[in-house]
Amino acid sequence: MIVLGAGAGGLAAACVAASEGLRTLLLEKTELAGGTTATSGGMIWIPANPKMKAAGFEDSVAAARTYLERCAPLSGGTELREAFLARGPEAIAYLEERTALRLRPVVSYPDYYPDLPGATLGGRVLEPVPFDARELGAHFDRLRWPIAEMMLFGGMMVERAELPHFRNVFRSARSAARVARLVAEYALQRLAAPRGTRLVLGNALVARLLKSALDLGVELRFGVAAKRLLMESGRVTGVETEAGKLSVIRGVVLATGGFSHDAQLRAQLLPPSASAVSPVCASNAGDGVRLGFAAGAKLGERNAQNAFWTPLSCFRREDGSQGVFAHTITDRGKPGIIAVNAAGERFASEALSYHEFALAMLRSPGAVPAFLLCDRKSLWQYGLGAVRPIALSLSRHKARGYLVEGRTIGELAANLRIDAAGLERTVARYNEDARRGMDTAFGIGNNVYQRFLGDRDQQPNPCMRPIETVPFYAIRLYPSDLGTAAGLLTNEQAQVLDGSGRPIAGLHACGNDMNSIFEGAYPGPGITLGPALTFGYIAARQLAATDAPG
User: Fold this and answer.
1) Confidence of residue 104 (pLDDT cuts 50, 70, 90)
2) Which of 232, 387, 483, 492 lies at 20 to 30 Å from 151 by C-alpha?
3) Tell me, what's the pLDDT at 16?
4) Neighbours of 272 (CB within 10 A)
5) How many C-beta atoms surround the C-beta of residue 356 within 10 A?
6) Given this model, what pLDDT does residue 319 score?
7) DSSP assignment letter at 227
8) Contact (CB, 8 A) for 65 and 118
9) Is residue 465 a contact partner of residue 496, using CB atoms and an 8 Å limit?
10) Structure confidence at residue 162 as a pLDDT band (50, 70, 90)
């Protein structure tokens, strides 16, 4: 079997195939493993997963089905979704039994529409257990680094549960001790490595799968791009690369990460107001989708959205490179932080899921760009995009135009070139609401997910606090894709389908090369990686169980 792409789906497929006894070759066109997974939060959404009950959560396939019917209605059949619900827990159990993958339930991460029937408040999402990169040996150099702005001190990764300790380091002896221990451990790690060796989030997920692939004997070739699929009598028989042709007996799995950086497909399938800048790995340029097209495959055309969305801010690093910051959970929804359009008016609850918030930007007049603003107190405590909390100097961000400052709300509006009177009215109304703890405009903080994004120490509403400590600050936000949802049509065995709906023999797809089983809806954290692992597993098991042709 040949797998194209070394993200979560591709690595999972390769590991399962090798575990099932297939000689497995994984081709990655870049020099590094991980793709967008390596820079992601590493969340994996698997309803009714085997770890939920031990964590105190009750769930069922029926409850998940009810939830999805409400928040992610389908335009066609349910076979793929049912396969995911039925086999997702099976895939996780298999991978944990036969590979180095180790996951744990996130007990306090609600589904994104928590008031809908069938939603859960935690446990459906799994995260990788921290991994010691020294176990990879020399292959640690093959692991894609996290985004620089998501690390501390030039290379230290931090878990979500540790972030509050860093915010409270000067206010809590317990937090100060925890941070001191983490920093000391990191300093020791840097004596022998170019960055911290304690890996968490998506980097840990990729590292665990990469370690597994190596242990299982998967042949890994980096810097090798597939030019075309070889076909014979309607069956995929191999892959052609710059170096030559590679024959395959069982089949090929496409797992190249979607088309986020394919300008032609973006222009065809995504709204024109969406930012061309994306936090997705630059190598995700539609390779798998286009290889599928050449073999007779078709793209999903009935999605509610052809991409998953997030608000994004852009900046220049000291070396002149383009930096991007996806505003998922770190600042939006925190007390004293609001988003406004060019008229200086709020247009949505800031604590919506990143997908829903970016959709609100796309749908609201004057909200591209939008402006995320706060006062000095909130900037110090929570940060704002690439401006980290407890930042001792803001000069670099201000000098490059990323962070805009004003001594008054009116001056901030003038510096942003937005309506000053409108912004002053908006802030006045917000401040009045914040003192009462009730948002009369958009109801921020009115459900458990929105309160989860806030600060539980801020009461009565963890998402609201008056904006009044001078000076005031803002950054510009743009709606950007967090990955593409439109992909190749497949069946429940992850087999790619032709224009007549028949499987193309020897061709499978998973991850963002496969059309989203949620058709562009975003039910909860990890709804790309959960299906990627599941259908990578399904594809490999199906190929391993199929008799070799001839």
Assistant:
1) very high
2) 483
3) 98
4) 7
5) 16
6) 86
7) E
8) yes
9) no
10) confident
Structure tokens at 103: 């996951």
Do 519 and 470 form a contact (C-beta atoms < 8 A)?
Answer: no
Q: Which helix (H) or strand (E) holds 362?
A: helix 354-363
Handedness of CA 291, 292, 294, 298 (dihedral sign): negative
Judged against a pLDDT cut of 60, whether residue 550 lies above it is answered with: no
pTM > 0.85: yes or no: yes
**CA terminus-to-terminus distance, the chain:** 16
Which CATH class for the 308-481 domain?
Answer: alpha beta
Please check whether residue 513 is in contact with residue 483, taking contact to mean a CB–CB distance below 8 angstroms.
no
Report the 10 Å Cβ neighbour count for 242.
9
Contact 333, 450 (CB under 8 A): yes
Report d(CA 387, CA 402) in Å as an integer: 9
- Give the integer Cα–Cα distance in Å for 364 and 450: 21
Q: Which tokens go with 266?
A: 């973006």
**513: burial class by Cβ within 10 Å (0-12, 13-18, 19+)?**
buried
Tell me if 389 sits within 8 A of 378, measured CB to CB.
Answer: no
Alpha-helix runs per DSSP H in 2-74: 8-19, 61-71
Give the β-pairing of 235-241 and 226-232.
antiparallel
Torsion over CA: 490, 491, 495, 498 (sign) = negative
Residue matched to tokens 């020294």: 134
Q: What is the Cα–Cα distance from 534 to 524, expressed in whole angstroms?
A: 16
Domain definitions of the chain by residue range: 308-481
Structure tokens at 172: 């809590």
Strands 337-340 and 370-375 come out as antiparallel
* Whether 112 contacts 453, CB under 8 Å: no
Closest CA to 95 of 14, 41, 37: 14
Of 144, 125, 128, nearest to 136 (Cα)?
144
Nearest to 219 by CA among 504, 503, 533, 1: 1
At 249, which amino acid appears?
I
- Integer Cα distance of 270 and 58 in angstroms: 38
Neighbours of 316 (CB within 10 A): 13
Place of tokens 């409270």: 168
